């Protein structure tokens, strides 16, 4: 396979900003450098300056197509491929090709050129991107019917924004550089209002900024850059689940808002060192607040809170970090400076904001529930083990004559217990040995020697050492158990957070891997599946790896699945937790595959249900007209019965009527079957409703003349299949006639509502309760029928299926005063043929 071509996109906020002009200018620059450049398709929209830019460039002749009596031209893909230039200029990426072209959309034509190794330069407006299509319609009031998937544009090797202020674009328009003079006033008062243009411009800038941000993050990952690049403000706010959380979130949101649309990220560190006082209810409320302010919520696991916060901030390229002032009292702050102080010291190039709040200094005065022994606590313990016994010996020396040895031993034992509480077993053993030596040297006769003259004194010192060792061991074991319990609690909270944050649907697996990546501060997480041909990435968060050997850590997720982690080596405890995530990822993958299988099996189950109902219906409804026809024909063939001419005519008429009913039943069944398998042939075209109504009433025979018609004078054409619409209206008319009293005949009305046309078939019959409205559209239902001679209950089901196949809808309504109204809604169109190429932007401007 050859090298794929490169795609360059000129993105504009609105028509007329100069995308095509810039594309042609780039074509001239490349041609002057000796590059082989051709024009595959350019639409000048009658703009003189744009047309002049085409001069001097080779233009590939267009392909001529005939459609419904009109001639159109499209890009000749085959001609461009045969010419095989180095660069092709192809205008209007979102353009819809005329039926009969190789592809339905121009971006598909461009994909074929890129696959052939041809570089393509193209243009597109922001309003034609699918992700913002609905937003643009709300802003401008103009629906954008031609769209291009965002992924096509995001995959471009280069995107260049053609930007222009609203005032400058309006001046261009007023000078006749965009539209013909007769179109200018309408354009300025509609699509090209200043508010519309500013909104479209902002959309284009934000979309392009996101695309640039993605490229920046990818570059940082590829080059292992961990330092902060202040290309875009990102504000991270640290949440503890405390009462100050709301204050911090709102303050961080204001900081982000002042940073020209900076990002807001909230993060909670689930500690494994026993600080488990976070309220999950408070965290859930703060998460909702963050998301309501346009931010995102994240949770990470870390033994060292400052390190975990900074690791997350650097991984997200954050520029500012918002922390709350400590809730602890002064005494607790003297024992430990706190998270904020350590974060500020290690923050480097990340700005740290310490936010005061109403709960500052109102927490517990001593650390509460801190059972694990961090490195900092052990260092303090060793320091106390070295300093406390000598200081105690110096303090007790003046009182040797007043305090006996037992009291001295108890005081040194108390000091050893204090050391064990602070630093654990090892510092306590040092304190016990040092205390024993000091007691022996300074307080046990003979003084100032290590000799013990009395047995009781020796026993007292031995008991002192044993008690100190036992107490220290007990304290250390309790600390380890507390650490393990806290670790388990932190893991449980993290698992609960992951389980709660993963959404259902096709993106559930990717969402889970993204949460794992954030939780453990990894560069990428990839779920790999081993097949007969090797490893295949199933889903990934970050840059995917193709085999386990490329990862820093690999965690089995099943017999054929492996979770590949990149970014850092995980500790054994973290790997165990990731193993739980891996098992859950395997379950999610199985669930997604089972869901797809179930979705594929659902039509089969529905078809089987319909088949069963069909057999039950055929047993009666097909047999009735068939039996009547059979009886009439048998009578006519009988030689034993002498029939008059009138009798023979009546029997033939009965047989003909029964066979017509039978043929109609078969047609309905075949059409219902075609609809269910998607094989119904639909020919959509601009259709006059009044003409179809007339034909539908003719199909009803003399009874059709009873229906009162009001189709209106200003009803536009609808996009429909005339034949299928005729069947729908005939079915609805027949139902209305069947249930309407003789004195109040049915009514049929037409009206326009927005961009749709509604046809109402109104009867004054007994009506149907709203709870049963859905049932009347099920096949083989005859809700309310009492004669069992009116068909097999396919009329309404078939009518709704045909209407929806044409892009419309069929819904019931209550008739005021009693009865039922069936509403057929179809898309309106004012065109009798597809718009000519280049007409799209002019239509947008004049709507």
TrEMBL record:
Membrane topology qualifier: Multi-pass membrane protein
Protein name: histidine kinase
Residue ranges of the TM segments: 379-397, 409-438, 458-479
Highest taxon in the source lineage: Bacteria
Entry's localization field: Cell membrane; Membrane
Region annotation (Disordered) ranges: 828-847
Catalytic function, reaction form: ATP + protein L-histidine = ADP + protein N-phospho-L-histidine
Chief place where the protein resides: membrane
Annotated Histidine kinase domain residues: 617-830
SMART domains, sorted: HATPase_c, HisKA
Keywords (A to Z) from UniProt: ATP-binding, Kinase, Membrane, Nucleotide-binding, Phosphoprotein, Transferase, Transmembrane, Transmembrane helix, Two-component regulatory system
Biased composition (Basic and acidic residues): 838-847
GO cellular component, one term: cytoplasm
UniProt EC number: 2.7.13.3
GO function term, MF aspect, one: ATP binding
């Amino acid at each position: 396979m050859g090298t794929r071509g490169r795609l360059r996109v000129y993105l504009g906020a609105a028509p007329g900003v100069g995308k095509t002009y810039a594309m042609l200018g780039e074509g001239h620059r490349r041609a002057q450098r000796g590059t082989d450049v051709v024009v595959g398709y350019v639409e000048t929209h009658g703009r003189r300056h744009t047309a002049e830019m085409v001069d001097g460039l080779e233009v590939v002749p267009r392909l001529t197509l005939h459609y419904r009596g009109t001639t159109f031209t499209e890009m000749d893909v085959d001609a461009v491929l045969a010419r095989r230039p180095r660069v092709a200029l192809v205008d209007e990426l979102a353009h819809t090709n005329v039926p009969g072209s190789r592809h339905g959309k121009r971006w598909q034509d461009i994909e074929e050129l890129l696959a052939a190794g041809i570089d393509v330069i193209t243009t597109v407006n922001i309003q034609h991107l699918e992700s913002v299509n609905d937003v643009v319609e709300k802003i401008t009031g103009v629906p954008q019917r031609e769209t291009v998937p965002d992924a096509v544009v995001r995959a471009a090797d280069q995107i260049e924004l053609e930007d222009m202020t609203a005032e400058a674009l309006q001046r261009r328009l007023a000078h006749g550089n965009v539209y013909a003079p007769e179109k200018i006033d309408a354009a300025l008062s509609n699509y090209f209002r200043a508010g519309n243009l500013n909104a479209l411009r902002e959309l284009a800038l934000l979309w392009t900024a996101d695309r640039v941000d993605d490229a920046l993050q990818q570059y940082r990952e590829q080059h292992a850059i961990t330092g902060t690049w202040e290309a875009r403000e990102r504000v991270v706010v640290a949440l503890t689940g405390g009462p100050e959380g709301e204050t911090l979130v709102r303050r961080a949101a204001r900081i982000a808002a002042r940073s020209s649309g900076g990002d807001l990220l909230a993060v909670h560190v689930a500690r494994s060192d026993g600080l488990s006082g976070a309220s999950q209810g408070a965290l859930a409320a703060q998460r909702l607040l963050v998301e309501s302010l346009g931010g995102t919520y994240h949770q990470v696991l870390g033994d060292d809170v400052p390190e975990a916060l900074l690791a997350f901030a650097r991984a997200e390229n954050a520029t500012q970090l918002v922390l709350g002032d400590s809730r602890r009292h002064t005494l607790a702050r003297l024992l430990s400076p706190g998270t904020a102080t350590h974060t500020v010291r290690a923050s480097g190039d990340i700005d740290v904001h310490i936010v005061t709040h109403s709960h500052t200094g109102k927490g517990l005065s001593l650390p509460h529930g801190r059972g694990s022994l961090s490195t900092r606590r052990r260092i303090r313990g060793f320091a106390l083990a070295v300093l406390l016994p000598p200081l105690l010996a110096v303090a007790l020396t003046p009182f040797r004559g007043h305090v006996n040895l037992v009291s001295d031993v108890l005081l040194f034992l108390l000091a050893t217990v204090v050391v064990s509480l602070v630093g654990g077993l090892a510092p306590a053993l040092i304190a016990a040995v040092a205390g024993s030596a000091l007691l022996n040297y300074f307080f046990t006769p003979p003084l100032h020697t290590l000799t013990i003259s009395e047995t009781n004194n020796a026993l007292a010192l031995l008991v002192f050492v044993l008690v100190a060792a036992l107490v220290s061991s007990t304290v250390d074991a309790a600390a380890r158990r507390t650490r393990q319990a806290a670790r388990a609690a932190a893991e449980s909270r993290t698992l609960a957070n992951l389980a709660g944050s993963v959404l259902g649907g096709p993106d559930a697996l990717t969402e889970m891997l993204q949460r794992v990546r954030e939780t453990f501060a990894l560069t990428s997480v990839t779920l790999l599946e081993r097949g007969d041909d090797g490893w295949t990435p199933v889903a990934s968060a970050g840059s995917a790896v193709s085999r386990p050997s490329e990862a820093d850590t690999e965690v089995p997720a099943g017999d054929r699945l492996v979770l590949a982690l990149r970014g850092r080596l995980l500790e054994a405890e973290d790997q165990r937790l990731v193993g739980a995530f891996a098992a859950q990822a395997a379950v999610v993958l199985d669930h997604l595959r089972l869901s797809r299988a179930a979705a594929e099996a659902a039509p089969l189950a529905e078809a089987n249900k319909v088949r069963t109902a069909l057999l039950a219906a055929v047993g009666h409804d097909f047999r009735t007209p068939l039996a009547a026809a059979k009886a009439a024909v048998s009578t006519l063939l009988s030689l034993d019965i002498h029939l008059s001419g009138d009798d023979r005519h009546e029997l033939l008429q009965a047989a003909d009527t029964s066979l017509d009913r039978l043929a109609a039943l078969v047609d309905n069944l075949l059409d219902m079957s075609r609809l269910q398998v998607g094989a119904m042939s639909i020919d959509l075209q601009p259709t006059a409703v009044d003409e179809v109504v007339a034909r539908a009433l003719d199909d009803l025979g003399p009874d059709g003349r009873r229906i009162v018609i009001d189709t209106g004078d200003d009803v536009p054409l609808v996009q429909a299949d005339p034949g299928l619409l005729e069947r729908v209206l005939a079915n609805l008319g027949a139902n209305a006639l069947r249930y309407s009293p003789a004195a109040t005949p049915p009514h049929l009305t037409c009206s326009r509502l927005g961009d749709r046309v509604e046809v109402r078939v109104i009867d004054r019959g007994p009506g149907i309760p709203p709870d049963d409205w859905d049932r009347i559209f099920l096949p083989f239902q005859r809700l309310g029928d009492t004669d069992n001679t009116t068909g097999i209950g396919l009329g309404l089901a078939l009518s709704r299926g045909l209407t929806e196949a044409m892009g419309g809808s069929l819904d019931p309504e209550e008739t005021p005063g009693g009865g039922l109204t069936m509403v057929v809604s179809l898309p309106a169109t004012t065109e009798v043929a597809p718009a000519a190429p280049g007409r799209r932007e002019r239509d947008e401007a004049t709507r």
